């Protein structure tokens, strides 16, 4: 029998003795020739790795082909090298070009909302807000207290009820789902209603809607397929969402008028802008990623606005733009072989390239792909791939975040977690967890650097666009409205721009927020705003700022508060 065949069967027999099925034993061997951890030790500390492997020519045990240290050095070079100077600045400049092109030409991204003016803090009163997400329906009465209140106390949720959207609710078809939602709205606001709530004087509602919609006005839009297992759109496709909700609530004896619809990124920007007048961006970074940015209307291709009335353009100097950030980055992202493998196996390869590099849906999967190769080539985890890790997306981002955040001397919490979620005949040891933590750190740091480059590119683009907007507003061929002059002066006065953020990754992943702010600060400290004609159509504009800053501020309960602010702005006559 050839030596290689003898080795395969010897390895398989030993695996069988450790509890594996014959097929699983063979599979593990083919995945990793180094099937067994023998008398050896690995220590990983502060970037220094020592690997000792005992082997014998008479044994079927195969020594690891690479040292752990060598593998980690390659991983860190591939993930962290492209985010060092000057590569990160160059990447940001390339992103800015893609953002400009997206604003002018791409109908799938850089989408202008109907929200064209930010709150002034003169808005005050109580407002009904509804947040419909993938797993939860939330109904709230939100109070805006205006300029008299200080800081975060300027807005508060007077009452909020949350209702879980379980499988039975998702299975409700058509109006049945909206009837269920209307019942929950009525139960929340019944005590707050008075005799004025009539069809002639309906209760105005702001809605944060986390599903596709073809928005036709600030308060209306055509319902699209909702996805995420929902059947509510069945029989209602193309119908006006405002009319659907109005009808459902009326059947429950509640007269409402849907007056404002916002998505999560717009809601986050509006909610923080009510508290902090320097807010011009929002960042959503959880399972997915998105950024909204407040830009001059002139930067957006006219066709992207659809059939809006001329009165909208008469009032609008700026507009909140939903970037659909995940769609950017094709051809310029620093893809490793593991990124390429993820993309090739994805149902929609290249559809959202940047999202694959930064969002919570994919950070764990990238780590899984790296780890599987490491098991085969270095012998970590005893050279045995835990069966669960053979399944795509089985190593989730929560797991690697908990491992990266484990600072206990023994790493026992991480060891217990990994054993529970990914049991294996070869149990992990402390050195294995240290190895995984190094992988996770490289992957999460790259994510934070790429997001920083996105924010910096958008800041530069906005800065250049505002300078051009100022020149246009002041030209002899343009009618200078009071709103345009006020907007111009307000933007010029901003030295610091606030980014309102929320999402599980940026809020909960250890050190992610600090790393993101650090990369942003570094880009500002090492880059001046100098652009060539090839990188921006606004490069020749006068008045471009050469310095500034970006501050990241958490936007708590932003969906509900943002929906209420959008509604309040409407009542103040600031939006259509």
Automatic annotation (TrEMBL):
Domain of life: Eukaryota
Top-level EC class: transferase
Keyword Oxidoreductase: no
GO CC aspect terms: cytosol; mitochondrion
Keywords associated with the record: ATP-binding, Glycolysis, Kinase, Nucleotide-binding, Transferase
Region of interest called Disordered, as start-end residue ranges on this chain: 42-63
Molecular function in Gene Ontology: ATP binding; D-glucose binding; fructokinase activity; glucokinase activity; mannokinase activity
Positions with biased composition (Low complexity): 48-62
EC id: 2.7.1.-
Keyword set includes rRNA-binding: no
SUPFAM superfamilies documented for this protein: Actin-like ATPase domain
Domain Hexokinase N-terminal: 83-274
GO biological process, alphabetically ordered: glucose metabolic process; glycolytic process; intracellular glucose homeostasis; mannose metabolic process
Stretches assigned to the Hexokinase C-terminal domain: 281-569
UniProt similarity note: Belongs to the hexokinase family.
Name the UniProt record assigns to this protein: Phosphotransferase
């Amino acid at each position: 029998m050839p030596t290689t065949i003898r080795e395969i069967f010897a390895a398989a027999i030993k695996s069988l003795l450790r509890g594996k099925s014959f097929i699983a034993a063979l599979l593990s061997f083919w995945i990793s020739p180094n099937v067994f951890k023998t008398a050896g030790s690995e220590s990983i500390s502060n970037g220094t790795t020592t690997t000792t492997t005992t082997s014998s020519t008479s044994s079927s045990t195969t020594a690891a082909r690479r040292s752990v240290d060598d593998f980690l050095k390659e991983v860190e070079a591939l993930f962290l090298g492209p985010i060092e100077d000057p590569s990160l600045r160059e990447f940001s400049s390339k992103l800015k070009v893609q953002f400009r092109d997206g604003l002018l030409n791409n109908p799938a991204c850089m989408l202008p909302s109907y929200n064209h003016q930010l709150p002034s803090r003169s808005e005050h009163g109580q407002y009904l807000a509804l947040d419909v997400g993938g797993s939860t329906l939330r109904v709230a009465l939100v109070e805006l207290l205006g300029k008299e209140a200080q800081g975060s106390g300027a807005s508060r949720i007077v009452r909020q009820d949350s209702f879980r959207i379980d499988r039975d609710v998702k299975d409700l078809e058509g109006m049945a789902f909206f009837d269920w939602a209307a019942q929950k709205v009525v139960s929340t606001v019944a005590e707050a209603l008075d005799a004025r709530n009539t069809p002639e004087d309906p209760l105005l509602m702001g809605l944060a809607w986390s599903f596709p919609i073809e928005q036709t006005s600030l308060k209306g839009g055509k319902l699209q397929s909702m996805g995420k297992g929902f059947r509510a759109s069945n029989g209602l496709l193309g119908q006006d969402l405002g009319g659907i909700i109005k009808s459902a609530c009326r059947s429950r004896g509640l007269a409402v008028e849907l007056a404002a619809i916002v998505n999560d990124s717009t809601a986050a920007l509006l909610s923080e802008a009510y508290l902090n007048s320097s807010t011009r961006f929002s960042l959503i970074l959880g399972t997915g990623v998105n950024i909204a940015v407040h830009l001059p209307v002139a930067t957006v291709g006219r066709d992207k606005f659809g059939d809006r009335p001329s009165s909208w353009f008469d009032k609008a100097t700026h507009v909140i733009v939903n970037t659909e950030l995940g769609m950017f980055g094709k051809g310029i992202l620093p893809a490793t072989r593991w990124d390429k493998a993820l993309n090739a196996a994805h149902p929609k390869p290249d559809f959202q390239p940047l999202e694959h590099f930064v969002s919570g849906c994919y950070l764990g999967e990238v780590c899984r792909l790296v780890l599987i190769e490491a098991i085969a080539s270095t012998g970590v985890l005893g050279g045995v791939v835990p069966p669960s890790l053979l399944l795509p997306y089985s190593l989730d981002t929560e797991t690697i975040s908990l491992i990266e955040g484990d600072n206990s001397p023994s790493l026992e919490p991480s060891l217990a977690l990994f054993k529970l979620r990914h049991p294996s005949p070869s149990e992990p040891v402390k050195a294995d967890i240290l190895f995984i933590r190094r992988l996770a750190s490289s992957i999460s740091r790259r994510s934070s650097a790429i997001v920083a480059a996105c924010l910096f590119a958008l800041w530069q683009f906005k800065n250049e666009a505002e300078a051009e907007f100022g020149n246009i507003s002041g030209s002899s061929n343009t009618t200078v409205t009071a709103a345009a002059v006020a907007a111009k002066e307000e933007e010029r006065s901003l030295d610091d721009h606030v980014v309102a953020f929320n999402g599980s990754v940026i809020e909960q992943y250890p050190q992610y927020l600090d790393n993101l702010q650090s990369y942003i600060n570094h880009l500002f400290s090492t880059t001046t705003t100098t652009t060539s004609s090839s990188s921006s159509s606004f490069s020749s504009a006068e008045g471009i700022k050469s310095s500034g800053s970006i501050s990241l501020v958490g936007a708590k309960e932003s969906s509900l508060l943002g929906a209420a602010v959008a509604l309040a702005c409407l009542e103040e006559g600031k939006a259509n």
